[in-house]
């Protein structure tokens, strides 16, 4: 039907390698451009997830009419004592006896484990390694601020403020630089 095209044999291996090399150079040049947007996405994701767990803790305390505690946890079963360890994960548990740890697995409401070692979540006080809500929805202690930061130091951190009456809110200004 169609006459054969003469002189056209396809591309050579050299031409193919040249195109692949150009694509590799272009890809390598654009990777740093994506680093900060990806850091912002990771920061917002962890911030919103932590905020959701705080809201869940308060609502569960009211719903169950018992004390509910949120604490840093690496394994989802036991609380850690470090107020900077929230970035490893956290544990939400019903705490009717006001213990530092859940006494059995039925008390665990939710657990989150984080694989992102570049995100830091910390409370404003080294004494505040637990966030506890009373059955009334009030916070156990006075006000506290929780900062969520990315280790790239280019992305401004975000803060969550918990008032003594249990109100949880996003801080109005970004934390820049992160502590």
Can you give a write-up of this model?
This protein is α+β, with helices and mostly antiparallel strands and 179 residues long. The protein has one domain (35-170): minor pseudopilin epsh fold (3-Layer(bab) Sandwich), CATH 3.55.40. The chain is 29% helix and 22% strand. It has one helix spanning 13-64, and strands spanning 68-72, 89-94, 108-113, 119-123, 131-133, 144-150, 158-162, 168-170. The strands form two sheets. It has a four-stranded antiparallel β-sheet, with helices on one face. A four-stranded antiparallel β-sheet has the order 4-6-7-8, covered by helices on one side. Strand 6 and strand 7 (158-162) form a beta hairpin. The radius of gyration is 25 Å and the shape is elongated. The mean pLDDT is 86.
Features:
single chain, 179 residues, alpha+beta, minor pseudopilin epsh fold, 4-stranded antiparallel beta sheet, 1 helix
Overall number of domains: 1
Overall shape: elongated
Percentage of helical residues? Answer: 25-40%
CATH superfamily: minor pseudopilin epsh domain
The assigned CATH architecture is 3-Layer(bab) Sandwich
The averaged pLDDT comes out at 86
* Unreliable residue stretches: none
Rounded to the nearest angstrom, the radius of gyration is 25 Å
Structure summary:
This protein has 179 residues and is α+β, with helices and mostly antiparallel strands. It is built from 1 helix and 8 strands, in the order H-E-E-E-E-E-E-E-E.
